[in-house]
Amino acid sequence: MSAQFTEDGAPSPDTPPAFQAVDAHAAYDGVTVLDGVSLDVPAGQTMAVLGPNGSGKSTLMRAMLGVVPLTSGRILLHGTPLRRFRDWRRIGYVPQRLTAGGAVPATVREIVASGQVARRRRLSLPTRADRAAVDDALATVDLSDRAGDAVRELSGGQQQRVLIARALAGRPDTFVMDEPMAGVDAENQRALARAITHLRDQGSTVVLVLHELGPLEEVIERAVVLEHGRIVHDGPPPEATGECARPGHEHQHPHPDPNDPDPAHATAPSEMVRLEVPRRD
Ligand SMILES: Nc1ncnc2c1ncn2[C@@H]1O[C@H](COP(=O)(O)OP(=O)(O)OP(=O)(O)O)[C@@H](O)[C@H]1O
């Protein structure tokens, strides 16, 4: 457990939030996408960002990492304003889907080890601790036995686990995951949920964009729901209703799976999970 936590696992009183957004606004081509988002994510929290397509979830993640500039407002990472933040080794970002490695013959182990490049000194070789971290990351996502296989031979769900292992290999304490469950079959979703539970249990901060809670329901401590770039719910995870909420329903994300050439397999937005969100009055 990291030094920013007390012995009983709670964040130390002087530990700043992992993320802070203060009245954050962002726009693409003059169109507002984040419309005054204020949010603190305490260190060690596992938080989901939910909301309909186009509500600004990914933009919020990208803004928190400085990839999308704000038009006004402020972002702080671990108490430091974004423009002065240098400790990027603390941050593990898991993008939506694997792109690098899909076309090149990289092995699973190579892709996972690439997550350590940023923390290594220039021209230095991996240390024993680095190699052990890669082994641990592979074990956490249950892919130790696939380490030597080409990534392109893996299913989309397994590739998603590789991406999480790549973020883990850099030994960050703060994770941002953009729809890790999207287009992932039930078995891989469970493996991902185990890996995310492991991160939570070791005291990491985990912020995830999700379309539904699914197997992560037990893991998520807090849900923020966006609509039109504004927070409409911030608190306990809302309950899912509708077709997708039924036990055994295998949710499919409405975005087409890049590994599935058949567009008929994309789910229509009307089948999306509906969330019962208490309104803020
Ligand atoms: N790079 C971009 N340039 C222009 N518009 C963009 C860009 N990225 C996103 N948008 C638009 O901004 C809005 C919010 O997009 P964003 O991806 O943040 O939403 P989201 O809630 O993550 O959606 P989804 O659930 O579909 O991934 C959408 O209308 C989207 O079309």
From TrEMBL:
It comes from Nocardiopsis eucommiae. It comes from the Bacteria. Belongs to the ABC transporter superfamily. This is Metal ABC transporter ATP-binding protein. Residues 231-281 are annotated as: Disordered. PROSITE patterns: ABC_TRANSPORTER_1 (PS00211), ABC_TRANSPORTER_2 (PS50893). Keywords: ATP-binding, Nucleotide-binding, Transport. GO terms for molecular function: ATP binding; ATP hydrolysis activity.
